[in-house]
Amino acid sequence: MIRFLLGCLLWGLGFERNDPATSSGFHTEQLVPTRPRTSLEAAIRFLSSTLFLLALIAQFLSEDLDWRHVLAAPGAAWCLLMLCRPSLPMDSTAIGTALLGFAGYLPYLLIGNLYALPVATLLAQAGLVGGLASYGLFRDIRREIKAEKTMNKA
Questions:
Q1: Which of 91, 134, 136, 143 is most buried by a 10 A CB count?
Q2: Sign (positive/negative) of CA torsion 18, 89, 138, 13?
Q3: Taking the domains of the chain in order of start, what are their residue ranges?
């Protein structure tokens, strides 16, 4: 269990596991090329992994600790990153970072402590992240269409 949790934390930092070759001969890097993470995306992933571990530990502590509103911090940081740096594409790296922002809620679901799950915070974060991801995808599609039109005119 500790090895799994340490692996989650290291994955959040950006360390990738070397997977063995598949039977098809294709690796994930060959199927879907991804861009490297920015340092801010790596920091958001680290924060998400840390909150996952803290939320897991908090499940076994007293219910008097009401810090669950902090679970939305990675989602808010990702939204600020995407709003402040519109040059970042909404690709699999960006969307993966956004989805990892929900890792802090996972221990509540795994352990079955649904009564303590901060539903309002979860729904607000899901709506904000989903809306911003949709906006980013449409923004990137518009950029591609404009780029194709300018190439066809030239």
A1: 136
A2: positive
A3: 2-12+36-153
**How far from chain centre, in Å, is Cα 18?**
21
| Sign (positive or negative) of CA dihedral 82, 86, 88, 89 | positive
Q: What is the pLDDT of residues 113-123, one digit of tens each?
A: 778 788 888 99
> Cα 95 to chain center, whole Å?
6
User: In this structure, how many other beta carbons lie within 10 angstroms of the beta carbon of residue 56?
Assistant: 19
Three-state DSSP at 27 gives coil
Closest Cα to residue 116, out of 68, 61, 52? Answer: 68
List phi, psi (to 5°) of 49. Answer: -65, -40
Q: Look at the chain and count its residues.
A: 154
The identity of residue 95, as a single letter, is I
**Helices marked H in 20-118:** 28-31, 39-58, 73-84, 92-100, 106-111
* Full-model pTM: 0.76
Instruction: Give the pair of three-digit tokens for residue 16.
Output: 């990738």
